[in-house]
Amino acid sequence: MDAMKKCALLLAAAALAACAARRPSLKADSTASPTIALSTAPAEAVAPAAPIAPDAPPTEVAEASLRGGGEFAARADLKAVRFDFDSAALSDEALEALKSNAEAIKAEPRLEVRVAGHCDERGTTAYNLALGQKRAKEVRDYYIRLGVDGRRIATISYGEENPLCAQPDEACWTQNRRAETTARTAAAPAP
Amino acid sequence: MSPALLLATLLTVPADAQTEVRMSVGGGSQPLPVLVLPAFSAADGRRGEDAALAGLLREIVRRDLLLSRRFDVRDEDSGGLPAAWRLLARAGQAADKISAQVTLADASGGRTVFERYYRQDARWPRALAHRVADDVVKAATGRDGFARTRIAFVNDQTGRKEIYLMDYDGENVRRLTDDRSIDLLPRVSPDGRFVAYTSYKDGNPDLFLLDLRSGRTSALSAEQGLNVAGGFSPDGTKLLMTLSRGRSPNLYLKDLKTGGVERLTSHFGADSTPTFSPDARQAAFVSDRAGNPQIYVLDLETRQPRRLTNFNWCDAPAWSPTGEWIAFAGRARRGDPLDIFLADVTGSQVLRLTRGEGANEDPAWSPDGRLLAFSSTREGRPRIYVMDADGSAPRRAAELPGASTTPFWSAD
Q1: Which of B181, B182, B184, B224 should be substituted to probe chain A, the one whose Cβ sees the most A Cβ atoms within 10 Å?
Q2: In what order do the strands lie in the sheet containing B271-276?
Q3: What is the ipTM of this complex?
Q4: What's the pTM?
C-alpha cells in the first residue's frame, strides 16, 4: 500500500505526467472542488512463486467522482458519438466529433464532463452495463490523449437502461448505441 | 420472510436422500408416479370457511405437486397406472390460525408414510400449502422440493425499475425497493435473507444489500463506475462482483465478513457476470477478451481462466446447483435473438433449450437444479418464465404490468 500511496501522490503532483494511462484517484465532495483521495483498492494478487525481482503491484486508480455537485447538462458543442453493434471502437466520424468536443472542454477550464455509455436493447442487462462502461472509457481515454485533464472526466454506464427510442429495429438501435458527453461547471478550477 | 410454520407432530421422517440419478437433460422420461389427491375435507363440515379453506389449500398443493413435475396428479383413482401415493387432508380455522391434518399414504401397500398436523397464521394459507407440498416431495422422492422458494426480479410497472420478489409460482408478488431510480440485477443470498442489487439512486451504479428481515438497505460497494453483484458463494460469506473502477469492468470477490475485496481478473476487455460453481472453487463469467462475449470458467485458486463456449455470442452464465451444467443466453449467428442454452462444464456438449420464441435471457436455476427461470419476449414485453431444465414445459411465471427481467431464483 505504501508504494501505491506514494505513486498516487506523485501522480497527483505530476498531474498525470509520470504514468501514462494511470490516473490519480479523485473524489469531489458535495460542494468543493475535487480533492485527492487515495484508492483503498487492494493490490493485484501476486503469483504464488516469489519472483526474483518483484515488481510493485499495479496501482489501482479511480477517476473523477460523479457524486455531488450540480447536474451534468447537454451542450450543443458536446456531440454524442455512435458505436457499431457490440463494439466500443471509435469510428473516424466519432474521433472527429470527440476532437471537437475536446477543444470545447479545454477552452473552459472549469468545465467538468461526464461521459455516459449506452447500448441497444440486444444482449443482457449485465453485459450491456459492461459494454456501456467500455464505450464511456474509450471516449474518456481519447479525451485524455487529446490533452484533457483526466481529473475533469467522469464516466458512467447506463447499459440498455436509458434508450432514446424503443423500436426493435436497426434505425433505433443505432441511435441507442452511443456515448454522450455532458458538462457542468466546477465550483473552482481543477488545481 | 414467511412466518415459521408450526409442525405440531412429526410422525414419520423419511429416510434421508440417496444420490439421485443424474437428471437426464433432453433424455426420455419414465412415466411419473400417480399421486391421488382427493378433495380436502373441512374440519367442521358445517362451516363454510373450513370448506373454502380446504378447497384453497388443496388447489395450492395440487399446483405445487404438478409444478414439481414429480407426480402425475389425479383427483381420484382411475384407469391406467396404479396409484403410487395418496394424499389426504382435513383443514379448518380456529380464531386467527388455520390448520391442516395431512396424511400421505403409499397407495399400493396402504402404508402411511406420514401423518402431520400443520398450523399457520390465517393470513398465510399459501405458506402452509407450500410446506405440505415440499413435505410430500421430500417423503416421496427423498429430495427437497421448491414450493417455498422465491424468485427475485426487476419490473418497471411504476415507471422506474425496482426490485420485486414473488413466490416461485408467481403468487405473492411484492415490491422490495422504492428507490425511484434504476434498480438492476438482484441476487439473493443463499439463506434468503439478503438481496444484493445495483441502483443508480446516488448517481452512480452502486451495489446495495437489502436485509429482508429488517428492511434496511446498506451500501455494499460504491466505487466510481460499475458495481454489480455476480453471485453469492454457496455458504453466503462471499460475493462475486463486477467493478470497473474507472477502467474496464473486471471481476472481484468481496468477503462479506471482513469487507475485504480481492481482484480476480485484470483484463483490458470487459469481464462480467461471475457466478460461483456449487463447490465454490470456480466461477463462470463472461468476457469479450476474444472478441465477442464468451463464457469462461475461472479457477479461483490458480486464477487460470478457460474458455467454455464458442458461439457468436454467449452471456449470462448460471451454474447449475448440481454442478454439471452452465446455463447461458447465447446465439449462434450475429443478429439472432438470444436463446437459452446449456453447456456441460467441459464445454463439449451444448444443448439448446429455447428456439424461435422472442429473445430469451438471464437463465436462473431452481435450487434443486430441475427448472430454469428466464426472461422472454415471446409474448411481447419481457416477462419471467419457468421451464424444465431440458427446455420442456415453459410457463409464464406471473402476469404483471410492465417489463419483468433478470430473474434470480432464491433458495429460501
Answers
A1: B224
A2: B271-276, B282-287, B294-299, B305-307
A3: 0.86
A4: 0.83
